[in-house]
Design goal:
Peroxisomal Thiolase, Chain A, domain 1; globular; 333 residues; single chain; binds oxa(dethia)-CoA; alpha/beta
Length: 333
């Protein structure tokens, strides 16, 4: 029996909306400061959409760039897997809107809702689609518009200062030789679902949203920041070890580490604890903030375009977020 080809990343792309929002601008709207935000999170700016732009629009731009990098056109795709926690509309999924924006039809398009680990979950689905032989070319996208769902007042400041809008995409196709996605490792711990969540609108309410829910701010993200932080710095090293062991790799053999961009302090702590040299870790949270499902593919695209991922390089991606969800993947370029 023929061994199925691994899925490889044939092209990457990213996009952020043009409007840059500085810490100083946020400090005019709520009780915060550039100093607090930089010291606690490492973030200096983030990008926000203008009214009327949604996550499918950002995803389209990132996808077009990934397709171009892969030397392909949208009509060459066999499936779309899109990760987002900020859907374009309640339903249908953002992937359907993206498919239409790409000017294609009929290929399957599905959404993955796994928050900041969403890209890794989508990558696993896309990779298995490719390896099955049924869908050889799969577009995997992470996209978020956070700015329309956060509170620009002191009540929401813990979350509002960290979130940004953006999209990142990869095109998967069968890889040759040793290249490709070596493994993906995924976890969820639903008992902590309410430690970082948006409660409403929710199908448990009749109606799903009303003025009382809005007045209580239950349509805005609520986060127990310290609790999330503590679990992130525990789970990320754990799942990295799982990925390395599975592939019989030593930490030193990894050329590039791409972590979810939630807080620079999380990534610095994880890298320092594991003994990873800073030059092997790429962060862009300083300029984009936390773009949830888009963060890892945005980092990947910047590294690829900067020539930081030569042929044969081993890349380890790792994320943690709401759910709680966490995961890691090793890719040989
Ligand atoms: O992407 C998904 C995963 N998300 C994460 O991984 C986020 C993890 N958590 C974090 O990154 C951090 O917990 C935060 C950046 C959100 C908060 O930093 P912290 O050092 O954990 O602060 P804290 O929540 O313990 O709050 C310390 C103080 C509080 O004031 P009091 O109670 O000490 O008077 C907060 O009210 O800082 C206050 N605070 C702020 N002050 C100025 C919270 N947010 C802000 C703010 N500006 N934006």
């Amino acid at each position: 029996m023929q061994t199925p080809s691994r899925a490889g990343i044939a092209g990457t792309g990213m996009y952020v909306p043009p409007r840059v929002v500085t810490n100083e601008e946020l400090a005019k709207l709520m009780d915060t400061s550039d100093e607090w935000i930089v010291q606690r999170t490492g973030i200096r700016t983030r990008h926000h959409v203008d009214p009327g732009t949604g996550p499918a629009d950002l995803a389209k731009e990132a996808s077009m760039r990934a397709l171009e990098a892969a030397g392909l056109e949208a009509r060459d795709l066999d499936a779309i897997v899109l990760a987002s926690l900020s859907p374009h509309h309640e339903f249908p999924g953002t992937s359907a809107f993206l498919q239409a924006l790409l000017g294609i039809s009929e290929i399957p398009a599905m959404d993955v809702r796994c928050q900041c680990t969403g890209f890794l979950y989508a990558l696993q689905v896309g990779r298995l689609f490719v390896e099955s032989g049924q869908y050889p070319r799969v577009l995997v996208v992470g996209t978020e518009v956070h700015s329309t769902g956060i509170e620009f007042t002191t009540r929401g400041r813990d979350v509002t200062v960290i979130f940004g809008d953006g999209a990142g995409a990869v095109v998967l196709e069968p890889a040759e030789g040793e290249r490709g996605v070596l493994s993906v490792h995924l976890h969820t711990q639903g008992e902590f679902a309410r430690k970082l969540w948006v409660e409403a609108p929710g199908s448990v309410f009749q109606p799903r949203i009303d003025q009382a829910l809005i007045d209580d701010g239950r349509h805005y993200p609520q986060m127990d920041g310290r609790f999330v932080f503590k679990h992130a710095v525990t789970r990320m090293p754990e799942v990295m070890r799982e990925a390395l062991d599975k592939n019989q790799l030593k930490l030193e053999e990894i050329d590039l580490f791409l972590f979810h961009q939630a807080n620079l302090r999380i990534n610095e702590y994880v890298a320092a604890q594991a003994g990873i040299p800073p030059e092997k870790v790429y962060n862009n949270i300083e300029v984009y903030g936390n773009c949830s499902a888009a963060a890892i593919p945005m980092c990947l695209d910047e590294c690829v375009r900067q020539g930081r991922v030569p042929e044969g390089a081993l890349v380890l991606m790792c994320g943690f977020g709401s759910g709680f969800t966490w995961g890691a993947s090793v890719v040989r370029w």
